[in-house]
């Protein structure tokens, strides 16, 4: 099976612009999560989508949004970019939502999109 | 490749030696813990997990130890190889919310 793919791999934007990142999960996986990774903050959970619905959301401002399509592909959008949005954005997929008693070892990450805001 | 962090704690280990990576977690109610490995230019990759009702779990060349008394988690890698060079993250799942809380990561460097 092909792994999780993310496009583009690298992106340079200026403050105030908006950006859309794309994620294609592993075939058959219906859950897609997004994370922001920065040197100072580590991995921060953004949101998780399942069956085209946002199921969980982290503590990020409303400038960060996402959506999922019927084929499970997902996009995230950041509007009015700020310098602090520079980060590696990671997408992870898994077959379904993890219940309270289930583990996370089935979560597969893509290589990420490196966003630089100038 | 990608650099996931310029100011990470770093552990340098001689090739062939055992590595021990430590992690302090924050929530005494966390019921599940996981270790991920992230190589340069790649996303994190699952290594091993452990539930709070266990204090040790072994995988292939890796062992995770959990000490709930002091909220400490460690990852032991036996006979470290060049391919083990990566940033290692621990993560915990608080009992009331199944989203993971990730640690800052430790960079493992293998000396030839």
- Apparent shape of chain A: globular
User: Beta-sheet strand percentage of chain A?
Assistant: over 45%
- Helix segment count of chain A? 0
- Number of beta-strand segments of chain B: 10
Strand content of chain B: over 45%
**Low-confidence runs of at least 5 consecutive residues of chain A:** none
Main beta sheet of chain A: strand number and arrangement? 7 strands, mixed
Assembly state: heterodimer
Largest beta sheet of chain B, briefly? 6 strands, mixed
Radius of gyration of chain B: 14 Å
Topology order of chain A in helix (H) and strand (E) letters: EEEEEEEEEEE
Name the helix and strand elements of chain B from N-terminus to C-terminus, one letter apiece: EEEEEEEEEE
Q: Would you mind describing this structure in some detail?
A:
- The complex is a heterodimer of chains A (118) and B (112).
- Chain A is an all-beta fold and 118 residues long.
- Helices cover 0% and strands 51% of the residues of chain A.
- In chain A, the strands form two sheets. In chain A, strands 2, 4, 5, 6, 9, 10 and 11 form a seven-stranded mixed sheet that branches. Chain A has a four-stranded antiparallel sheet with strand order 1-3-8-7, with no helix packed on it.
- In chain A, a hairpin with a 3-residue loop joins β4 (31-38) and β5.
- Chain B has 112 residues and is an all-beta fold.
- Helices cover 0% and strands 50% of the residues of chain B.
- Chain B has no helices and ten strands.
- In chain B, strands 1, 3, 4, 8, 9 and 10 form a six-stranded mixed sheet that branches. A four-stranded antiparallel sheet of chain B has the order 2-7-6-5, with no helix packed on it.
- At the A-B interface, β5 and β9 of A face β4 and β8 of B.
